[in-house]
Specification:
The chain has 158 residues and is α/β, with parallel strands linked by helices. 47% of the residues lie in helices and 14% in strands. The protein has a five-stranded parallel beta sheet. Strand 4, helix 7 and strand 5 form a beta-alpha-beta unit. 20% of the residues are buried.
């Protein structure tokens, strides 16, 4: 969140993209929901400028902060990342199931990619697939790995 208060954030990202030759479509910048709603007018311009560079934008921990559906229509987002608190225990909690379904539908209706964080069991994965969740992250797939082990993991799971 602190980086979004630096006046040179957009030029810095543009410079790094130019220097590295990275296609901006492969860079996704995440910002937490709580940060966005602190000063939405401040962030809208920055996000639009980053989006103009071709960078992807994600709202992280969606549903845990001070959600305002009105703000969603103003932010040029690509992805909603559902906080793990809704995934944890979803098998036994119909309320979490309903919230997850609603977030996936909302995200898709806004043209956004929806990612669920904290997926740890096959039943969580299966439920999320059944409601149309686009992507998942969590220990079910892998714990955090050092670079060398990550490279080996990717190569062995192609």
């Amino acid at each position: 969140p602190r980086q979004f208060y630096h006046k040179n954030l957009v030029p810095m990202v543009e410079s790094i993209l130019t220097r590295t030759g990275l296609d901006p479509a492969y860079l996704e910048i995440e910002i937490t929901e709580g940060t966005l709603v602190e000063e939405p007018s401040h962030f809208i311009g920055i996000l639009k400028n980053l989006k103009a560079l071709g960078v992807k934008l994600a709202i992280d921990d969606f549903g845990t902060g001070y959600s305002s559906m009105g703000y969603l229509k103003h932010f040029p987002l690509d992805t909603l990342k559902i906080d793990q608190s809704f995934v944890r225990g979803l098998e036994d909690d119909p309320t979490n199931q309903a919230i997850l379904k609603a977030i996936v539908i909302l995200g898709h209706n806004l043209g956004l990619n929806v990612i669920a964080e904290g997926v740890e069991t096959e039943s969580q994965r299966d439920f999320l697939i059944s409601i149309g969740c686009d992507e998942m992250q969590g220990f079910l797939f892998s714990k955090p790995l050092p670079m060398q082990q990550l490279t080996e993991f990717i190569q062995s799971h192609r």
